[in-house]
Inverse folding.
C-alpha cells in the first residue's frame, strides 16, 4: 500500500492570503501547502481518499489522480468536506455514487451542506454519494481493514484512520489513553502540528507532537496540517528529532 499527501496545510493553506512572512513568500515548493488530505492506494490499486477539502480539484489534477473508490471523512469542518461537489466528474465517468464513511454527525452535516446531492429528484448535474455511518470499531472496505482512531478536536470527536501499521490523524488536540493503545509501535504515524509555540485549543503544537513521539515510539512520524507559523520547511525539518519529518504536498510513503 502507499499513501500520498495531497495537502499538508491548515484551513487557510500556505501561503496565507495577504501574508508576507518568510514561509508565505518562500519559493520552495515544500512551503506551498494545500488543505490537508491524503490518498491511500491499496494493494489491489483501489483509491481511498481521506477528506475532501476546497483544494480537491487542484490536488487531483496536480497528482494525476483519476479515481476515488471511496472517501473516509475525519470530520465536518469545511477544509475537510467542502470539495465534495468537485467529485462530480468522477461520479459522471463511473456512473456510481461515491461511498463516504464518517460519523453519523458528520453524515448529517454533509446532507445539510449538499442537499441537492440527496434530493429525491436530483438536478442532472448534481453529485451523488452513498453515506455509511461508522462507529469506533474496525471495518472492512474494498480489500482493506480500516481502524478508526477517535481523537478530540476542541469539543468534537474526530476520526483518524489506521491501515496496517500506519495511522493518519489530523485536527487533534487530545488523544485518550485507550486510543493511544492503537497507536503504539507503529511503522508510520502521521499527526497534525499547527505551529511551534503557543498552545492551541484544538490542535497539537510541536512540543505536544514530540511528547507523543517519545510516548508512542513509531519508527517514523510525519507532521501534517501545518501552518505558516511552524517555519520554513528546509530549516525546521532538520531541527526535528531523528525519526520525525515534516510532510509536504506530493510526498508518497509506502507501507
Amino acid at each position: 500500500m502507499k499513501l500520498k499527501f495531497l495537502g499538508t496545510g491548515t484551513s487557510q493553506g500556505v501561503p496565507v492570503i495577504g501574508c508576507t512572512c518568510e514561509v508565505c513568500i518562500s519559493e520552495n515548493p515544500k512551503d506551498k501547502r494545500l488543505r490537508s488530505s491524503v490518498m491511500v492506494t491499496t494493494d489491489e490499486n483501489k483509491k481511498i481518499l481521506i477528506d475532501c477539502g476546497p483544494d480537491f480539484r487542484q490536488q487531483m489534477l496536480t497528482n494525476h489522480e483519476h479515481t476515488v473508490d471511496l472517501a473516509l471523512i475525519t470530520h465536518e469542518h469545511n477544509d475537510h468536506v467542502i470539495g465534495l461537489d468537485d467529485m462530480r466528474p468522477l461520479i459522471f465517468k463511473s456512473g456510481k455514487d461515491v461511498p463516504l464513511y464518517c460519523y453519523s454527525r458528520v453524515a448529517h452535516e454533509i446532507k445539510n451542506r449538499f442537499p441537492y446531492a440527496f434530493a429525491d429528484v436530483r438536478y442532472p448535474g448534481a453529485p451523488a454519494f452513498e453515506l455509511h455511518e461508522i462507529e469506533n470499531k474496525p471495518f472492512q472496505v474494498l480489500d482493506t481493514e480500516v481502524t478508526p482512531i477517535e481523537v478530540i478536536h476542541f469539543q468534537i470527536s474526530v476520526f483518524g484512520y489506521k491501515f496496517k501499521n500506519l495511522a493518519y490523524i489530523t485536527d487533534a488536540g487530545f488523544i485518550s489513553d485507550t486510543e493511544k493503545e492503537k497507536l503504539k509501535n507503529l511503522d508510520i504515524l502521521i499527526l497534525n502540528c499547527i505551529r511551534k509555540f503557543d498552545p492551541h485549543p484544538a490542535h497539537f503544537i510541536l512540543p505536544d507532537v514530540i511528547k507523543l513521539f517519545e510516548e508512542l515510539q513509531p519508527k517514523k512520524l510525519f507532521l501534517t496540517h501545518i501552518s505558516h507559523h511552524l517555519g520554513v520547511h528546509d530549516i525546521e525539518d532538520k531541527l526535528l528529532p531523528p525519526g520525525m519529518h515534516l510532510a509536504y504536498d506530493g510526498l508518497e510513503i509506502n507501507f
Q: What stands out?
A: The chain has one domain: 2-254. The first strand starts at residue 2 and ends at 7. The chain has a mean pLDDT of 98.
